[in-house]
Design brief:
Shape: globular
Membrane topology: Single-pass membrane protein
Number of domains: 1
Subcellular location: Cell membrane
Protein name: Phage shock protein PspC N-terminal domain-containing protein
Helix content: 55-70%
Largest sheet: none
Keywords: Cell membrane, Membrane, Transmembrane, Transmembrane helix
Main location: membrane
Length: 57
């Protein structure tokens, strides 16, 4: 999982659900724009704290 940009939340979700990282990022941005951004920023911060860090290989 070398594709993380900020906290690696989208990369982690893409890896977990076996999806393309670009698709997950587009969905995240789309939902953020549709929900006035603040709820998705809060979701991202909470997910960043809750999702465990994957050990480096």
């Amino acid at each position: 999982m070398q594709q993380k940009m900020l906290g690696g939340v989208c990369a982690g979700l893409a890896d977990y659900f076996d999806l393309d990282i670009s698709l997950v990022r587009l969905i995240f941005v789309g939902v953020a724009l549709l929900t006035a951004i603040l709820p998705m920023v809060l979701f991202y911060l909470i997910a960043w704290l809750v999702i465990p860090v994957q050990p480096k290989e």
